[in-house]
């Protein structure tokens, strides 16, 4: 075979000699813009860019920015990283940009996470015992929203001198009485309660540098507990120093809405 004949054969077989053809996989299936149906990531990205739309999804039950941030992170982790997603905190809204089918999926996912938080009633009971006998009971109730911190105080403010110059004393006020600080988080079998309970009193005074100051007695119970609806739980028992008395603190959780 001559050299000229070999060159002709090579020209006929070379793919460079074939006319260009459109790749049918560059477009999603007919009648849809679902770019996830394409066989390669490159084609899917090109398709997403071509058919991208923008949609604003408003959060109706998310009051704190930290909750909105968690939803944003969930969207980024659960869906294609090529989508554009932004949080507009001032509008309590998430902005999305991708092809329509994916927009619908993401919006449904956001609404699933953006659900109203439940409200519970926490009733704290302080039972006084003296020599093993119950001598008094006090109940304190507060409404808490799951995931949010709630505080409640009952008592008095008493003045304490902080400085005295030119016979013009300056005062600071101390809270005396009961103080409750509670954060309730829902879990599968009930709720986790992070609480701090303070009981304080000022039964006597003492003169220091010609200034009469109150002597404050304080009892604090700080911890984490796991609650079941309607089932009382004892948080702790506190002995009152110098007496034969002790206080038992318990709590019960009820669903309000």
Brief write-up:
The chain has 257 residues and is α+β, with helices and mostly antiparallel strands. The chain is built from 4 helices and 11 strands; from the N terminus they run ααβαββαββββββββ.
Characterization of the model:
The chain is an alpha+beta fold and 257 residues long. The protein folds into two domains: 36-113, Ribosomal Protein S8, Chain: A, domain 1 (2-Layer Sandwich), CATH 3.30.1370.120; 119-255, no CATH class. The protein is 19% helix and 52% strand. It is built from four helices and eleven strands, in the order ααβαββαββββββββ. It has helices at 3-13, 41-51, 65-78, 100-113; strands at residues 53-58, 84-88, 93-98, 119-130, 133-145, 149-165, 168-187, 190-208, 211-227, 233-239, 245-255. The strands form three sheets. It has a four-stranded antiparallel sheet, with no helix packed on it. A four-stranded antiparallel sheet has the order 6-7-8-9, with no helix packed on it. The longest helix is centred in the first third of the chain and has 14 residues, at 65-78. The radius of gyration is 34 Å and the shape is elongated. The model is unreliable at 1-23 (pLDDT under 50).
């Amino acid at each position: 075979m001559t050299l000229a004949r070999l060159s002709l054969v090579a020209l006929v077989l070379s793919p460079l000699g074939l006319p260009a053809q459109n790749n049918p996989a560059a477009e999603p299936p007919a009648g849809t813009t679902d770019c996830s149906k394409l066989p390669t990531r490159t084609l899917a990205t090109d398709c997403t860019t071509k058919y991208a739309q923008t949609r604003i999804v408003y959060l109706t039950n998310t009051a704190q920015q930290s909750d909105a941030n968690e939803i944003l992170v969930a969207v980024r982790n659960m869906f294609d990283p090529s989508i554009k997603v932004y949080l507009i905190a001032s509008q309590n809204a998430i902005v999305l940009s991708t092809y329509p089918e994916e927009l619908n999926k993401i919006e449904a996912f956001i609404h699933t996470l953006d659900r109203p938080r439940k409200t519970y009633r926490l009733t704290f009971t302080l039972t006084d015992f003296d020599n093993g006998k119950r001598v008094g009971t006090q109940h304190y109730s507060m409404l808490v929203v799951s995931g949010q911190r709630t505080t409640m105080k009952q008592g008095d403010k008493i003045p304490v001198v902080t400085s005295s110059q030119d016979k013009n004393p300056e005062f600071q006020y101390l809270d005396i009485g009961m103080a409750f600080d509670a954060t309730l988080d829902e879990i599968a079998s009930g709720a986790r309660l992070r609480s701090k309970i303070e009981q304080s009193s000022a039964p006597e005074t003492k003169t220091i540098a010609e200034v009469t100051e109150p002597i404050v007695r304080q009892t604090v119970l700080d911890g984490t507990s796991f609650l079941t609806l309607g089932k009382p739980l004892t948080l702790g028992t506190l002995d009152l120093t110098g007496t034969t008395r002790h206080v038992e603190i318990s709590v019960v959780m009820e669903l309000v809405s």
